[in-house]
TrEMBL record:
It comes from Nesterenkonia sandarakina. One of its GO terms (molecular function) is methyltransferase activity. One of its GO terms (biological process) is glycine decarboxylation via glycine cleavage system. GO terms for cellular component: cytosol. Pfam families: GCV_T, GCV_T_C. InterPro entries: GcvT/YgfZ/DmdA, GcvT/YgfZ_C, GcvT_bac, GcvT_C, GCVT_N, TrmE/GcvT-like. Gene3D superfamilies: Probable tRNA modification gtpase trme, domain 1. Substrate binds at residue 222. The glycine cleavage system is composed of four proteins: P, T, L and H. Residues 313-394 form the Aminomethyltransferase C-terminal domain. Its EC number is 2.1.2.10. Residues 8-283 form the GCVT N-terminal domain. The gene is gcvT. It catalyses: N(6)-[(R)-S(8)-aminomethyldihydrolipoyl]-L-lysyl-[protein] + (6S)-5,6,7,8-tetrahydrofolate = N(6)-[(R)-dihydrolipoyl]-L-lysyl-[protein] + (6R)-5,10-methylene-5,6,7,8-tetrahydrofolate + NH4(+). This is Aminomethyltransferase.
Length: 398
């Protein structure tokens, strides 16, 4: 397994490790419950260095990303970020990622760890193929027959993942902790930084990219820096947050936090078998000028009402009993002609530490997705009662 630059620091703190996408990552340090509650009430410190970092640089950067991704990346202002998807020709989701616009002709993409190499390869291929002409897939005979389609985009795709560490501070005390470690005259940069935005700050004499996005449902910051600077920053943050209840957190509580916040996880809620409409992700831009990979398939899926009037939709399930559903468990109809029949599948589920009852996300047939609908989850032959509820399950107070 690959190790992050902070692996030794995690071992020193007594972390339990797990294999996550081929990376040796801390699962927990003390208990998942304690770490989860720290993020909800004070703050948690995460090592996210397994995530990918892919830089797109060149005069065609915006146009290229508008062709490679489903969102309108050209509309993103410098210093801002956007959540988007990279899809296949059939509309299936290759990955979800965040794109930061560093400069007019430069973006930084952060894909999931398990998909980083797939995403980098797809971006490289799509950059070489050039614009998609007349609805033809990039690189196909139709697009290659025109010189403007075969020339490729004037961009470079750099996979910088191996050299970059990513550390996150999440929770109500996150802003105070980050402000305490930046250079004194830069605290305003932290305090004024908006959601899905980033800036550059100085910490310990090093220039660090500081973003404010998050994956826990709480306020939070991400810090991108070279591997050789990561250990010093990790220790500095632990010290700075010691009086504010900051604790190191593993992937176990990260999963329970993101589930409470109704945030999808690739491999659970998102996959090549699903399209954005089924997942409830309003991130596809059909208004942008560029033809993008998967556009025709997604237009057809939208026209047929996939995820709205046909097929399945991702929903939240609130447990009415004490037992939690888990990924892969069947969802059963309770009422009507379908009673007792399988009408969906749980994608993620666990007992909610914050809410005190079981929660789950599941893909369910459209006819059974109305909030308030009673459904059962088949827990190894023992049906347990659940109710369809809107997502997210948890929303922090502003």
């Amino acid at each position: 397994m690959r190790e992050t630059a902070l692996s030794a620091a995690h071992a020193d703190l007594g972390a339990s490790f797990t294999d996550f996408g081929g990376w040796k990552m801390p699962l927990k340090y003390t208990s998942e419950l304690e770490e989860h509650r720290a993020v909800r009430t004070t703050a948690g410190l995460f090592d996210l260095s397994h995530m990918g970092e892919i830089r797109i640089v060149g005069p065609d950067a915006a146009t290229f990303l508008n062709t490679a991704l489903v969102g309108n990346l050209a509309a993103v202002k410098i210093g801002k970020a956007k959540y988007s998807l990279i899809c296949r020709e059939d509309g299936g989701i290759l990955d979800d990622l965040i794109a930061y616009r560093i400069d007019e002709n430069e973006y930084l993409l952060v894909p999931n760890a398990s998909n980083r190499e797939v995403v980098a390869a797809a971006l490289t291929e799509r950059a070489a193929a050039g614009p998609i002409l007349d609805g033809a897939p990039a690189g196909s005979d139709s697009s290659a027959g025109d010189s403007s389609g075969s020339a490729g985009f004037d961009v470079e795709v750099w996979d910088e993942s191996e050299g970059i560490s990513l550390i996150a501070v999440q929770g109500p005390a996150a802003q105070k902790i980050i402000s305490s470690v930046v250079r004194g005259n830069e605290t305003f940069l932290v305090e004024e930084l908006g959601y899905y935005a980033f800036t550059t700050v100085s910490i310990g004499g090093d220039e660090i990219l500081l973003a404010r996005t998050g994956y826990t449902g709480e306020d939070g910051f991400e810090l991108f820096l070279p591997n050789d600077k990561a250990h010093a920053l990790w220790l500095a943050l632990l010290e700075a947050g010691s009086d504010d209840g900051l604790v190191p957190c593993g992937l176990a509580c990260r999963d329970s936090l993101r589930l409470e916040a109704g945030m999808p996880l690739y491999g659970n809620e998102l996959s090549t078998e699903r399209v954005s409409f089924e997942a409830g992700l309003p991130v596809v831009s059909f208004s942008k000028a560029e033809n993008f990979v998967g556009r025709a398939a997604l237009e057809a899926a939208k026209a047929e009402g996939r995820g709205k009037t046909t097929g399945q939709r991702l929903v939240g399930l609130k447990g009415l009993g004490k037992r939690a559903g888990r990924g892969g468990y069947p969802v059963l109809a309770v009422e009507g002609d379908d009673a007792g029949m399988t009408v969906g599948t749980v994608t993620s589920g666990l007992p909610s530490p914050t809410l005190g009852y079981p929660i789950a996300m599941a893909y369910v047939d459209i006819a059974h997705t109305e909030p308030g609908t009673r459904l059962d989850v088949d827990l190894r032959g023992k049906p347990q009662p659940f109710e369809v509820v809107p997502l997210p399950f948890y929303r922090r107070e502003s």
